């Protein structure tokens, strides 16, 4: 794992919402801090209504975390394209975020409740 990346269990319970719908709640959130960037919250898939998520063809690569895949959320108001991402097989030292989704905060609200 890159020295500038830190993982910690986020304290509290979180609600995940988009387009007026609750997509899940979790008290098993992992906070990833990378350098001076804002922390990113990773939510276990088991705590999300994955029936609303479709994996897309979009991918990206981070030299520190690995290859990411993206998900579109199927909302009543229409699809929210590539609103979430996941590192299916993250690099060594970051295995705890495998099986978790992170969200673009301009499309999905993740907040402590």
Strand composition percent:
over 45%
Q: What is the CATH first-level class name? A: Mainly Beta
- CATH-defined topology: Metal Binding Protein, Guanine Nucleotide Exchange Factor, Chain A
Share of helix, binned: under 10%
CATH-defined superfamily? Domain of unknown function (DUF427)
Q: Order the strands across the largest sheet as they lie in space.
A: 1-4-5-9-8-7-6
CATH architecture: Beta Complex
Structure summary, number of beta strands? 10
Number of domains: 1
- Topology order in helix (H) and strand (E) letters: EEEEEEEEEE
Structural class by secondary-structure content: mainly beta
Low-confidence stretches: none
How many DSSP H or I helices? 0
**Gap between N and C termini:** 31 Å
- Biggest sheet descriptor: 7 strands, antiparallel
Specify Rg, calculated over alpha carbons.
Answer: 13 Å
Tertiary shape: globular
Mean pLDDT: 96
Characteristic terms for this protein:
113 residues, mainly beta, Metal Binding Protein, Guanine Nucleotide Exchange Factor, Chain A, seven-stranded antiparallel beta sheet, three-stranded antiparallel beta sheet, 0% helix, globular, DUF427_sf, DUF427
Please give a structural write-up.
With 113 residues, the chain is an all-beta fold. The chain has one domain: Domain of unknown function (DUF427) (Metal Binding Protein, Guanine Nucleotide Exchange Factor, Chain A, Beta Complex). It has strands spanning 5-9, 14-18, 21-26, 30-34, 40-44, 53-62, 66-75, 78-87, 100-103, 109-112. The chain has a 7-stranded antiparallel beta sheet, with no helix packed on it. The chain is globular and about 40 Å long. The N and C termini lie far apart (31 Å). 25% of the residues are buried.
């Amino acid at each position: 794992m890159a020295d500038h990346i830190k993982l910690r269990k986020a304290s509290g319970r979180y609600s995940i919402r988009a387009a007026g719908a609750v997509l899940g709640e979790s008290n098993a959130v992992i906070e990833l801090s990378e350098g001076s960037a804002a922390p990113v919250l990773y939510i276990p898939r088991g705590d999300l209504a994955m029936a609303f998520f479709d994996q897309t063809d979009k991918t990206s690569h981070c030299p520190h975390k690995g290859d990411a895949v993206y998900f579109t959320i199927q909302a009543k108001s229409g699809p929210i394209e590539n609103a979430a991402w996941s590192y299916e097989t993250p690099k060594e030292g970051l295995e705890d975020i495998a099986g978790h989704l992170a969200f673009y905060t301009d499309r999905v609200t993740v907040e402590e409740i």
